[in-house]
Design brief:
The chain is α/β, with parallel strands linked by helices and about 400 residues long. It folds into three domains: about 80 residues; about 45 residues; about 260 residues, Alpha-Beta Barrel (TIM Barrel), CATH 3.20.20.450. It is about 55% helix and about 15% strand. The protein contains 15 helices and ten strands. α1 runs antiparallel to α2. The longest helix has about 60 residues. It is elongated.
Length: about 400
């Protein structure tokens, strides 16, 4: 197409030369120069027009390429976000959750099948006129009535003033190694007539909140000293000490506890607090916020005396609880009173929330074996270890001045 344009320009220039020679009486040289000038101008105009068109096409191509690159960049960004989301997805935990849900579903299905079988068996027995109904008396319920402690408040107050409160430790054992994982700090009161009274024998049931706060404050001081000295000796120890609403409801006591934890953050993770289920359920929003403040400083908690395992484990995990304690004998005798799940599925379900079950009051080896078969690896009780005195190099050296003032 461009060649035809040039041919047309050459013919037009030739026509201009002929017109100049014959019509304007130009000399042959002048006519040739005129034709050459006309052709040059025409070629320049055509080339300029072509160049403008080429530049316009090039600009349009560049714009299209820029749009394509922008689209590719957006697509790459979206793809990168999806790849990062896939990389951040914890597939292992999801698979574990699905496996646990399937296990729970299988347990429920098995329990339903067992219930249907028992129902059918009961129907068959009811159709037999001579069959006597089977009797399976339930074991007697535990007596939950409050019993007054053996040590009256007056003697307890006098014992605290005379520094006759000592602390022993009771191990929490990890199965199957029978290795102590932690210790409970158990208060003992030296009686006037001799001997040591355990906590249930002297802790007040009604009233005496100031005495309970004093005991828990002394336990905290003892635990800090023991944990620090054990850490210095290269044998770190984890201690659980008692905590009750008597302390949580007192602003001065909670502020003091926060100050102690804040000043001993190096060993704060070695300290835990044992809170009874009844105490936990009675806590208000303010007391629970106070517990969470303790947890933010590194302390952990253990829920004791659990009457049921039908608990909000997600809430317990969020508040800093690490274990739930229950009575071993009752669990083995009547597991349905604790949970609707099969005994072998309870511990795996609880572990999904980073919590451990701890069986207390273990009396013999048979209970240990049964608990271990059900996946419960933390145990405590007379069979695995009774409360005993703390090593002399770890205990607090108490001064005797208060005792002399009382005697005076």
């Amino acid at each position: 197409m461009q060649g035809l344009v040039y041919i047309f320009i050459a013919l037009a220039a030739l026509g201009v030369a002929g017109a100049a020679y014959f019509g304007l009486t130009f000399s042959p040289i002048e006519a040739a120069v005129t034709a050459l000038a006309f052709g040059s101008v025409a070629v320049m105009l055509v080339e300029r027009k072509l160049r403008q068109r080429s530049e316009a096409r090039l600009e349009k191509a560049v714009e299209d390429l820029a749009r394509l690159l922008s689209t590719d960049a957006k697509a790459g960004q979206v793809l990168s976000q999806r790849v990062n989301a896939i990389a951040d997805t914890n597939v292992g935990s999801r698979l574990e959750a699905i496996e646990a849900d399937i296990s729970v579903l299988g347990t429920v299905t098995r329990q339903l099948a067992e219930a249907l079988a028992e129902f059918e068996q009961a129907q068959r027995q009811s159709r037999m006129p001579d069959a006597e109904p089977a009797t399976d008396p339930l074991p007697p319920e535990e007596d939950d009535t409050l019993v007054e402690p053996l040590v009256p408040l007056v003697e307890l107050r006098a014992g605290l003033d005379a520094n006759r409160l000592v602390f022993h430790i009771e191990p929490i054992v990890l199965l199957p190694q029978h290795r102590p994982q932690a210790y409970d700090l158990a208060p003992r009161l030296m009686r006037d007539e001799g001997g040591l009274a355990s906590a249930p024998d002297f802790l007040p049931r009604r009233g005496g909140e100031d005495l309970v706060r004093r005991i828990e404050s002394l336990a905290l001081d003892e635990a800090v000293v023991v944990a620090r000295r054990a850490r210095t000796a290269g044998q770190p120890i984890r201690l659980f000490l008692p905590l009750s609403r008597a302390t949580l409801l007192d602003r001065h006591a909670t502020d003091q506890l926060l100050a102690v934890l804040n000043a001993n953050q190096a060993i704060a993770t070695s300290l835990g607090f044992v809170l009874g289920q009844a105490e936990w359920q009675a806590l208000g929003a303010g007391e629970r916020r106070q517990l969470f403040e303790f947890h933010k400083l590194g302390a952990s908690f253990s829920l004791a005396e659990a009457a049921s395992l039908r608990l909000d484990f997600a809430e317990l995990e969020g508040m800093g609880f690490v274990s739930v304690r229950f009575d071993a004998a009752r669990f083995l005798r009547r597991p349905e009173s604790y949970s609707d799940l099969h005994t072998a599925d309870i511990a795996p379900y609880v572990k999904r929330f980073d919590l451990e079950l701890c069986a207390t009051g273990v009396l013999d080896e048979q209970q240990l074996l049964s608990l271990f078969e059900d996946g419960i690896v933390l145990v405590q009780g007379p069979h695995v270890g009774r409360p005993g005195p703390i090593r002399a190099d770890l205990v607090v050296e108490r001064r005797a001045e208060p005792a002399r003032r009382v005697e005076a």
